[in-house]
Design goal:
By secondary structure, this protein is an alpha/beta fold. The protein has a single domain, classed as Rossmann fold (3-Layer(aba) Sandwich), CATH 3.40.50. It is 37% helix and 25% strand. It contains nine helices and nine strands. The strands form two sheets. It has a seven-stranded mixed sheet, sandwiched between helices. β8 and β9 form a beta hairpin. The two termini are 30 Å apart.
Length: 210
């Protein structure tokens, strides 16, 4: 599932549909927002702790800093724990820190590195798990991107998306851009996969402020 990091509905959609996802066979959720090298042991500790156990403070503080009004990663993890859904971190601190390199290609290198890290983690999860896996990450990571010539780094013309790496369907959920609910299904030619891929974009309207 792709999303825009500052949008409300991707997280709300997941929180509101966790019970349904569980009933459909989802046992694991992969999240880009968390780092495999620094957070996975905390996630596993929280997942296996008693039902009333608090979230590890370091993990809670990290999630709180990345949540905003109406979009709480803390709530997502708490509700997932109640249902026995395991959370897997898909990013790494190294892949995230690439954005600080400021070499003109940092955004491309960030995508390439993080996507490959997520692929390797998901390969392992899919090999070990008999249940379904739901992945939540930015749209730039989920789908493959064929770069325009002026945006290419030498030797890099295609950024392989995680959905293509693991040969998975892909839906992008975002807040409405026109004030209305809408569903758009686009068929794009992904040369990197040698075929055509249906990509569904689901735009949801934010609640009216009162």
């Amino acid at each position: 599932m792709g999303e825009w990091h500052t949008h409300l509905h991707p997280i709300k959609f997941m929180i509101n549909n966790l019970q349904l996802l569980k009933s459909l066979g989802v046992e694991t959720m992969g999240l880009e927002i968390l780092f495999c090298d620094t957070h996975q042991h905390l996630l596993d500790e929280f997942h296996t702790s008693p039902p009333d156990a608090p979230m590890p403070p370091v993990l809670e503080a990290f999630l709180a800093a990345r949540s905003f009004e109406g979009c709480s990663y803390i709530t997502l993890l708490q509700e997932a724990k109640k249902l026995g859904l395991r959370i897997v971190a898909l990013d790494s601190s190294l892949a995230f820190e690439i954005m600080n390199f400021k070499n003109g290609y940092e955004a491309l290198e960030r995508c390439v590195t993080m996507n490959y890290v997520a692929k390797k983690i998901l390969d392992d999860v899919l090999r070990r798990s008999s249940g379904k896996v739901l992945v939540h990450m930015g749209g730039a990571h989920a789908a493959s991107i064929i770069l325009e010539k002026e945006s290419q780094r030498p030797g890099l013309s295609v950024i392989h998306g995680v959905a293509d790496y693991i040969r998975s369907p892909y839906i992008c959920i975002a807040d409405s851009i026109n004030g209305k609910h809408s569903v758009n299904i686009n068929v794009r030619d992904h040369k990197s996969t040698g075929g055509r891929r249906k990509i569904m974009h689901l735009y949801l309207q934010r609640p009216v402020e009162t």
